[in-house]
Amino acid sequence: MKRKIDxxxxxxxxxxxxxxxxxRGARQVGKTYCxxxxxxxxxxxxxxxxxxKDPKYKEIFDTFDPREILVQIxxxxxxxxxxxxxxxxxxxxxxxxxxIMALRYFKExxxxxxxxxxxxxxxxxxxxxxxxxPVGRVQFLYQYPLSxxxxxxxxxxxxxxxxxxxxxxxxxxxxxxxxxxxxLLRLYFVLGGMPAVVAKYKNTQDLLAxxxxxxxxxxxxxxxxxxxxxxxxxxxxxxxxxxxPLHIAEWFKYSKIAPHIQSRTLKNxxxxxxxxxxxxxxxxxxxxxxxxIGTMNERKFKPLFIDIGLAHRACxxxxxxxxxxxxxxxxxxxxxxxxxxxxxLCNGRPIEDKKLFFWHREKGTNSAExxxxxxxxxxxxxxxxxxxxxxxxxxxxxxxxEKQAHFGLRLSALPLKKEGKILSVPxxxxxxxxxxxxxxxx
Length: 442
What we know:
The chain has helices at 5-14, 31-42, 66-77, 97-109, 122-127, 148-154, 158-165, 175-191, 195-204, 207-224, 234-243, 254-257, 263-275, 308-314, 319-324, 334-346, 394-403, 433-440; strands at 21-24, 45-50, 86-91, 114-118, 139-142, 279-285, 296-305, 356-361, 368-376, 379-385, 408-412, 417-419, 422-426. The chain is α/β, with parallel strands linked by helices. The protein is globular.
């Protein structure tokens, strides 16, 4: 499968000033697959050390001396590591925090060597109170499930993508192209972007088999909770992991999850699920300027699940029920908001730890809320998500008036078009959002 992060990895490889790289993201989003492919296709040789599968590798990092470390790796692999020609990959690197700290010395004393570290629970090691992060000596890249664009590439919809790449407000998609993309979008809502699920569908075309794969992935995440035990209690992680998909894209209140449990206890568990990349939080902001995090309200947020396909599977919705309904309207359109948030994360620059925000204004009975806001070219762009082709845009209009914004976005099932200050963009074109915004400002 072609992934957007592949180009970022190649750019890192070809950068003469590259630093050791840490690849961050949840388990099963394809980190190891992409690094292995880079090692096999872009380097003469490849060394992979998995600290979870073989804990003995940890002994190598009793020292921080890069040359001593390489001597020990070479002894285990019985071949020479040639800087500039070889890729060294430390998988599940969170199991050996000393290996992360050693990256600093590779940058300072052996910069020509290419080293990547990755791990599904890497965030826990980086946030540990006794951990010393080699600041300024390590580069980060962030990986997520497949975006809809990557999904289409995986299904080899090359001709369709060529057509989509050529559309603009002056040359919108034909009705036939629009209908086909809507059909594929519905399929993505069902399958999601987990690589194992997409591969299963590509190989079998069996939706029930894909549903079984989704269940397997969810079970795998639950089994990981034992590794979080030193951070928070297992039962609270289970509770939040089970309930969060039922509350995606709505204001999160701990009392809705378990009114008898202290919010502080559940907050700790929620933070750990967020660190593991299983839940993403969309925070409220007043959107008075950039950066948006400057006016973020930490107490007001909406949760998103790791993946749209896993979200409805976690809610125990069977494929048959999904097919009978308009999936984009399910859960009052919450899945459409999940899709948009997921696309904003997946289509962002891999080098950025992207944060998501929504706008909320509380003025007596005249409150308003816009589903997402994000910065673009120094401006704040509001997004209203509509699962179907209809729906009022009162809050979006209020935002445009109050903030004197030049335009706002409606993401829906409607075709691509401009209506005054409103840019209507079909959900399937989110991967071209920045280009379409640039077109509208010319």
